[in-house]
Amino acid sequence: MEESTSGPMPASHDDGPRGAGPGAAEPVTAEFDVTPHDEVDRIVAAWLQERPDLDLEPLTVFSRISRLARHLDLARRRAFARRDLETWEFDVLSALRRAGEPYRLSPGALVQQTLVTSGTMTNRIDRLTGRGFVERHRSPDDRRGVQVELTPAGLKQVDAAMADLLAVEAQVLGALDKDHRPLLAGLLRTLSTQFEK
Amino acid sequence: MEESTSGPMPASHDDGPRGAGPGAAEPVTAEFDVTPHDEVDRIVAAWLQERPDLDLEPLTVFSRISRLARHLDLARRRAFARRDLETWEFDVLSALRRAGEPYRLSPGALVQQTLVTSGTMTNRIDRLTGRGFVERHRSPDDRRGVQVELTPAGLKQVDAAMADLLAVEAQVLGALDKDHRPLLAGLLRTLSTQFEK
DNA sequence: CCGAAGTGTCTTGATATCAAGAGTCTTGAC
DNA sequence: GTCAAGACTCTTGATATCAAGACACTTCGG
Lengths: 197, 197
Prior knowledge:
The structure is a homodimer. Chain A is built from seven helices and three strands. Chain A is mainly α. A three-stranded antiparallel beta sheet of chain A has the order 1-3-2. Chain A binds a DNA duplex through α5.
């Protein structure tokens, strides 16, 4: 699931957020452009060369989102690795953590929140149980049911990991002007509501 | 479980819910009559309840990026499925396509661009060869090497799939005001250069 | 009550992926 | 010229995931 490139491509298809207003008759300087280019600029430039008839605007947004998600995934993996925690482990533990006391959810609820199948969740709960981060309890009122509960060790782990995660992400976010952050969040929300309703 | 717009949180990072906001009467655009909430708003609200001491601003951006990427992946999968094409197949074919004539790359180059391992790429090339979308050719000047080349059938497939993909993505992007799109793309680029530098 | 349908969890079999290493071939130092 | 080191591709073994179905229990209609 990726659209990445490190290929050698002339890159100067760009309309960065800098400078003055839109529509400015700006000469594109290929050598020393102040706007930094990224891989997506190169991918779009390559497509433009091959298919000048296409409207590639969607790529400038969605390819970046996909690639950023991939990089984020790697960054998270690195951050969690220092605590010997895998990303999927954090996903499960954090769902339990933010559920609040007594930090209990059914496997079904965890499936919904983490977007994996029930078989995968069974496997994950098994391994988290083995590490002592969660425990299975029989549901009191439904004997089919199970409640997965965070142990004190799991609570400690997930709180520490969350702090690490926020620290790493805050550093990346630091590249953005403080005023621009809520703006970006708002634009992304507009897109996400497209999918969630 | 609604988001606390009235709570003591730092303005919830909305871009002005137009009227209902805390005095912020910024007439940006009249497109938000009611501020739509998404899953990330709920996740952030849950965390805020549990850990009011944390600065959760990074989540408002990065959790949305991750979740959007997931949704995009599913949308792409659906779009490609109509042509009996898998996402990973498109990733390989599109790398060859935008390389330009004669649509040839080495397996190593494809590995770099798609961020998978060489073993995975071998497997993918095998299957794409089986479907008649690519062919293996011996490299003329390096007898270790192989060149993977798009067949006419592969070219046709990838061009059709690209058109479908852009159509689907354009529809989602339609939720965004036309002026906001380059703005969003620019903000995302600022973040992605953080990772790619 | 009883049986059918529904719900929640776990098991099974198949698949794609990765990490590590093997097999070729090329390059460069001497 | 020769040998060691490197480069490129493919193979192997282990693993996590998914789809589909099995199993246990609950709920609901008659």
